[in-house]
Known about the structure:
This protein has about 120 residues and is mainly β. It is built from no helices and 11 strands. The chain has strands at about 5, 10-15, 20-25, 30-40, 45-50, 55-60, 70-75, 80-85, 90-100, 110, 115-119. The strands form 2 sheets. Strands 2, 4, 5, 6, 9, 10 and 11 form a 7-stranded mixed sheet that branches. Strands 1-3-8-7 form a 4-stranded antiparallel sheet, with no helix packed on it. Strand 5 (about 45-50) and strand 6 (about 55-60) form a beta hairpin. It starts with a strand and ends with a strand.
Amino acid sequence: QVQLVESGGESVQAGASLRLTCEASARTLSTFVVGWFRQAPGKEREIVAAYNWSGGVTIYVDSVKGRFTVSGDYAKKTVYLQMNSLKAEDTAVYYCAARLFTSGDYDYWGQGTQVTVSS
Protein backbone atom coordinates (compact mmCIF):
# COMPACT_ATOMS: atom_id res chain seq x y z
CA GLN A 1 0.00 0.00 0.00
CA VAL A 2 1.13 3.51 -0.82
CA GLN A 3 -0.44 6.73 0.29
CA LEU A 4 0.34 9.90 -1.62
CA VAL A 5 -0.27 13.53 -0.75
CA GLU A 6 0.42 16.35 -3.19
CA SER A 7 0.92 19.98 -2.32
CA GLY A 8 2.28 23.16 -3.80
CA GLY A 9 -0.35 24.06 -6.36
CA GLU A 10 -1.13 27.76 -6.68
CA SER A 11 -2.43 30.42 -9.00
CA VAL A 12 0.50 32.17 -10.67
CA GLN A 13 1.33 34.41 -13.58
CA ALA A 14 2.84 33.08 -16.78
CA GLY A 15 6.60 32.79 -16.49
CA ALA A 16 6.53 31.93 -12.81
CA SER A 17 7.91 28.79 -11.20
CA LEU A 18 6.28 26.32 -8.86
CA ARG A 19 7.46 23.23 -7.09
CA LEU A 20 4.94 20.52 -6.43
CA THR A 21 5.57 18.02 -3.68
CA CYS A 22 4.40 14.44 -3.45
CA GLU A 23 4.82 12.86 -0.05
CA ALA A 24 4.63 9.10 -0.08
CA SER A 25 4.22 6.50 2.59
CA ALA A 26 5.15 2.92 1.87
CA ARG A 27 7.22 0.25 3.52
CA THR A 28 9.37 -0.37 0.48
CA LEU A 29 9.16 2.80 -1.54
CA SER A 30 12.20 1.80 -3.59
CA THR A 31 10.08 -0.74 -5.44
CA PHE A 32 7.73 1.94 -6.75
CA VAL A 33 7.90 4.34 -9.64
CA VAL A 34 6.28 7.71 -8.98
CA GLY A 35 4.56 9.48 -11.82
CA TRP A 36 3.28 13.01 -12.19
CA PHE A 37 0.06 13.38 -14.15
CA ARG A 38 -2.10 16.33 -15.02
CA GLN A 39 -5.63 16.87 -16.19
CA ALA A 40 -6.64 20.12 -17.77
CA PRO A 41 -10.30 21.20 -17.99
CA GLY A 42 -12.08 19.26 -20.70
CA LYS A 43 -9.02 17.14 -21.48
CA GLU A 44 -7.93 13.63 -20.65
CA ARG A 45 -5.41 13.02 -17.94
CA GLU A 46 -1.87 12.72 -19.25
CA ILE A 47 1.35 11.57 -17.72
CA VAL A 48 3.89 14.33 -17.45
CA ALA A 49 6.90 12.57 -15.95
CA ALA A 50 8.01 9.53 -14.03
CA TYR A 51 10.68 9.06 -11.41
CA ASN A 52 12.37 5.99 -10.03
CA TRP A 53 14.48 5.90 -6.93
CA SER A 54 17.66 5.21 -8.84
CA GLY A 55 17.35 8.78 -10.01
CA GLY A 56 15.89 7.96 -13.40
CA VAL A 57 13.58 10.59 -14.82
CA THR A 58 11.40 10.31 -17.90
CA ILE A 59 9.58 13.35 -19.26
CA TYR A 60 6.67 12.36 -21.47
CA VAL A 61 5.21 15.67 -22.57
CA ASP A 62 7.24 17.48 -25.22
CA SER A 63 5.87 20.87 -24.26
CA VAL A 64 7.37 20.68 -20.76
CA LYS A 65 10.80 19.37 -21.71
CA GLY A 66 13.40 21.87 -20.65
CA ARG A 67 10.94 23.52 -18.23
CA PHE A 68 9.90 20.74 -15.84
CA THR A 69 12.21 18.51 -13.84
CA VAL A 70 11.61 15.76 -11.32
CA SER A 71 13.69 14.88 -8.31
CA GLY A 72 13.29 12.84 -5.17
CA ASP A 73 14.44 12.70 -1.59
CA TYR A 74 14.25 9.10 -0.43
CA ALA A 75 14.88 9.93 3.20
CA LYS A 76 11.85 12.23 3.15
CA LYS A 77 9.90 9.87 0.86
CA THR A 78 9.15 12.87 -1.28
CA VAL A 79 9.16 13.45 -5.03
CA TYR A 80 9.20 16.95 -6.46
CA LEU A 81 7.99 18.36 -9.75
CA GLN A 82 9.82 21.59 -10.45
CA MET A 83 7.96 23.65 -13.02
CA ASN A 84 9.64 26.68 -14.54
CA SER A 85 8.53 29.20 -17.14
CA LEU A 86 4.93 28.22 -16.60
CA LYS A 87 2.47 28.80 -19.40
CA ALA A 88 -1.30 29.13 -19.42
CA GLU A 89 -1.53 25.70 -21.04
CA ASP A 90 0.08 24.17 -17.96
CA THR A 91 -3.10 24.93 -16.04
CA ALA A 92 -4.41 21.64 -14.69
CA VAL A 93 -4.93 19.51 -11.65
CA TYR A 94 -1.65 17.75 -11.02
CA TYR A 95 -1.58 14.30 -9.48
CA CYS A 96 1.17 12.08 -8.32
CA ALA A 97 0.71 8.34 -8.60
CA ALA A 98 2.72 5.24 -7.88
CA ARG A 99 3.14 1.87 -9.48
CA LEU A 100 5.26 -1.09 -8.69
CA PHE A 101 8.44 -1.11 -10.74
CA THR A 102 7.29 -4.34 -12.38
CA SER A 103 3.79 -3.13 -13.11
CA GLY A 104 2.50 -1.01 -15.96
CA ASP A 105 -0.45 0.33 -14.00
CA TYR A 106 -0.47 3.22 -11.57
CA ASP A 107 -2.56 1.83 -8.75
CA TYR A 108 -2.04 4.49 -6.10
CA TRP A 109 -3.09 8.11 -6.49
CA GLY A 110 -2.97 11.31 -4.54
CA GLN A 111 -5.86 13.73 -4.31
CA GLY A 112 -4.42 16.26 -6.75
CA THR A 113 -3.32 19.86 -6.48
CA GLN A 114 -4.56 22.70 -8.67
CA VAL A 115 -2.13 24.75 -10.72
CA THR A 116 -3.56 27.78 -12.46
CA VAL A 117 -1.40 29.90 -14.75
CA SER A 118 -2.77 33.18 -15.99
CA SER A 119 -1.33 34.97 -18.98
